[in-house]
Amino acid sequence: MRLPFYSEVHAAESVACLNKALSRLKDIWEEIGIPEDQRLQRTDAVKMHIKNLLDMMIAEEEGLKKRLLSSIGSCRKELSGLCEELGLPPFEDEEGLTMLQLEKEIRTRLKVMLKQKSQRMSELKTLMQQDRELCDVLCDNPYTIDPDRVPSAQQLEDYRQHIATRNKEKECRHAEFVTIKRQIVACMEDLEQMPDTSFEREVVCEDEEAFCLSTENITALKVLLSQLENQKARIETMCVSYRCRIGELWERLHVPQEERETITEHITSSRKRDMDALQTELERLEELKMKNIKSVVEIVRGEISLLWEKCFYSLQQRQAFTPYYDGISASTMSVHTYDYTAPTLKRCNNAFTEELLAAHEQEQQCLKEHYESHRELYDGVNSWQNNWSLFQELEKKATDPSRFHNRGGNLLREEKQRAELQKSLPKLERSLKSQIEQWEAEQGKEFQVNGQCFTQYVEEQWNLHHLEKEREKLERQMKKSKQTEEDMLYGTALRTPTKRRLAGTPTPGKARKVPICLAIYVTAGCRTPARGRTPRGLERNKENLSQLSGALRTMTASPHRNYSINSVASSYSEFA
């Protein structure tokens, strides 16, 4: 192997130095006069000494080489294991490196990887400590990872994500726990209840940070809160029921305001003590009710009657509740068949019992529930009934002649309102019919109004309305025919006009013209009954009356035909 240039120079200098040293030794030996054989011995000693020194140096360098090779091998082996543990690619030597460079490179890389291993193991230990703490709080199982093996970078990242997720879960559960705890404490305060079980004491009394936030505990918290809320809801429901019942009894029993004010503080809130106070008041009123059972039954009957009216109950439906008539004397039953709340009904005092009151209250409750469940329909029917009554009233006003004498614009408003009702009533009927058909399909029974199907009830009301209009029209025609008959018999009477005359009406100074035939008849000898008639005149008048009556009956039977006086008597001779 050819040495580098600088090494050759150093070698040449070493040889020159050695030769110079040997030459100097030879000169000294000559000056001293050392014999030749001793010179040879000394030369051999120098040679041996130099050789041993060089051998020793060579041995030392060979040892260094071996140590370098051993270090490189061990470091390479350790580096390979670390690369495998750390999940890194295996180490590859660079080309052209000497043993020293290679050994240094490997040792440097090994030092870096050892430091990385130490950091990973330290982080793993920290993460495992955090995981154990979270597991203690959340009562969960720890993350699955080998604590004695160096984790890879991906494993550490997954572990960090797991810890972050568990921390968020811990925060959510802790916030949920704090919220539920506050609600539980509030419910217990409202219920005036102390924690009984160890779990309740742990929730209410212990430190919040010490509570185990396991899913089982969170579920148990929700169950406990639900139970307390159900108790609170039952108490609130009972309080509402007690208040309603107390209010009814106050009104029925006419309890004075001073007595009512004793429980005013318990009317607005719904805690357990409020329920107890309301229950005590209700029991007192129930006892008072039993003492005044007759008047209470009378009041309940009045309320039942009002509910019958609201629900449009028919007579048969009302009579089906037979307890309503207990305590009513038979002499008054037939008189007040339709008026169930008539004050003149005679009650038999000995018939008012607690069972009778219970039956009435049960019937009242059933009617209330029935009305509330069908309130929309009954309100619609009631609206139709009110509009129908108003429509009939306006129809009657439309036939009243005195309505033309108003000066406040009422006629125009009434006509406008009547026109609107004529349009709105059919629409309301169609809407109610659709709702009732849907209700009947859902309930599987017929919706009745006053014991009739609503459609039949409406048709009947319209038919009665039309019949009433026909009757009024016929009465007007009869009245007009009768007036015509009287005018033909006795002459036309002068009528004093009103202050406000319609267009075309005669002035007060102008008398109505009397038909010539009637005027001749009146002036020809017609007398009033007070002055008497001759028998011949009476007979002739009877004939005329019979003819006129037949003609008027014909006019009444055919009201749409026009008749004149000539159709009754074609000439004066026939009329006379």
From TrEMBL:
Highest taxon, organism lineage: Eukaryota
Any GO BP annotation: mitotic spindle midzone assembly
InterPro entries found in the cross-reference section: MAP65_Ase1_PRC1
Stored Pfam families: MAP65_ASE1
Coiled-coil annotated spans: 268-295, 411-487
Keywords, sorted A to Z: Coiled coil
One Gene Ontology molecular-function label: microtubule binding
Record's GO cellular component terms: cytoplasm; mitotic spindle midzone
Protein name (record): Protein regulator of cytokinesis 1a
Organism: Electrophorus voltai
Lineage: Eukaryota, Metazoa, Chordata, Craniata, Vertebrata
